[in-house]
Design goal:
By secondary structure, the chain is an alpha/beta fold. It is built from 13 helices and eleven strands. The chain folds into three domains: about 170 residues, P-loop containing nucleotide triphosphate hydrolases (Rossmann fold, 3-Layer(aba) Sandwich), CATH 3.40.50.300; about 40 residues, no CATH class; about 150 residues, Alpha-Beta Complex (Aspartate Aminotransferase, domain 1), CATH 3.90.1150.50.
Length: about 375
């Protein structure tokens, strides 16, 4: 599955407000749009009361030219209204969710939604896409009755739409919508509804494992490799500002199963976000070292006090002799197949402990120097 993460040039995220309905705020939002010769979508999703809502708006903003559009209008009448709004004969279009898709009016850059608590998350995101289709900054207001408590799901939907306003957030919104509503009955009645409790990614993995088990296949288990070393390795917010994109890149780097996959992730990261700073280069180095350790069957490389522990590392007598020759202070524990080596220093006397990529290179050199080529290369 591919996702489009780069927006068109000169597009801006839609500034989104979620809160209780307030007439003064609605009037101010419409006035601000009229001052820059823009237009407004006002969504009232009940046909029987839409004319009443339009009259209320006319009282609030008498100078605005207001039209009404909904699905129960005749085809010719509806077309005339929509063409009139397109040609800027009206300032405000009071409408139902009929405008949810297929409408592209770059001059309309304010959206006001009444009873946003009654709409689905995908609907809210799709409707928000009606504004911000040009160079102007767009505003959207998702409103609900302040006197009525929100349901748990309504609160979750509105919180999601408020938090994820960046361009390209549609994929995250869709995944969150899937978590909230569930993915349906995939493998029987007992499976339905569990997605909400475990999250979509884990849910999909569990379903895949269940299908493999049903077919009599044994899922391939990937051993975890713990790298706990003093390395300043992370993705700074200055490098990737959007949390969702930052987490996505963490996942890609951590889930690379070969050096080829890791190189592809690094190329993509450099292409999207520019030359990586030192902490990002360190993070890539940790991922590369993790693949090396996995190729040798290691599951733990960690700092323990003033020593670095490698395990499991079963060493025959010849390898133990080589370890003692190259690292005289190293300790090998046959019972647990662990090797403990004093942490290297920058200088023998008065030096500082080695850290970051220099420490990773030292650990990689120890592993390859003692064990030679891995039996199973991580690059394949």
């Amino acid at each position: 599955m591919s996702t489009i993460a780069t927006p068109p040039e000169e597009r801006h995220p839609v500034l989104t407000f979620v809160g209780g309905y307030d007439e003064k705020q609605v009037a101010a939002a419409i006035h601000r749009e009229l001052l820059r010769d823009g237009q407004v979508f006002y969504l009232h999703n009940r046909v029987e009361s839409i004319e009443k809502a339009a009259r209320k708006l006319r009282d609030l903003v008498p100078e605005a030219r207001i039209a009404v559009a909904h699905g129960q209008m005749g085809e010719d009448t509806l077309e005339k209204v929509m063409v009139g709004f397109w040609e800027k004969e009206y300032d405000v279009l009071v409408c139902t969710t009929i405008v949810e898709s297929g409408i592209d009016i770059p001059n309309a850059n304010t959206l006001i939604v009444e009873r946003a608590d009654l709409l689905g998350l995908a609907q809210l995101h799709q409707i928000r896409g009606r504004v911000g289709r040009g160079r102007e900054r767009a505003y959207s207001y998702f409103l609900y009755p302040p006197e009525k408590p929100l349901t748990e799901h309504a609160h979750e939907r509105l919180a999601t739409i408020a938090q994820h306003t960046e361009l390209g957030a549609g994929m995250y919104v869709a995944m969150k919508d899937l978590e909230i509503r569930g993915a349906g009955n995939l493998l029987g009645g007992e499976q339905s509804g569990h997605i909400e409790g475990v999250g979509f990614d884990l849910y999909v993995r569990m379903v895949g494992e269940a299908v493999q088990q049903f077919k009599g296949e044994r899922p391939e288990e990937e051993p975890d490799v713990k790298i706990d070393l003093p390395v300043d390795a992370h993705l700074p917010t200055e490098y990737i500002g959007v949390e969702r994109l930052r987490l996505e890149m963490y996942r890609k780097l951590a889930s690379a199963r070969s050096t080829v996959e890791l190189d592809e992730a690094v190329v993509e990261m450099r292409d999207r976000y520019g030359e990586p700073p030192a902490p990002v280069a360190n993070l890539v180095a940790v991922a590369r070292f993790r693949l090396l350790a996995k190729g040798y069957g290691l599951t733990d490389v960690s700092l323990q006090g003033k020593h670095i522990r490698f395990g499991p590392l079963p060493l025959p007598d010849s390898k133990q002799l080589r370890l003692k020759r190259f690292y005289p202070d190293a300790v090998y524990k046959p019972a647990t197949d662990q090797v403990s080596v004093p942490r290297p220093m920058t200088k023998r006397v008065g030096g500082e402990p080695v850290r970051d990529t220099a420490l990773l290179d030292w650990c990689a050199e120890l592993i390859t120097g003692i064990l030679g080529e891995p039996a199973k290369a991580a690059a394949h």
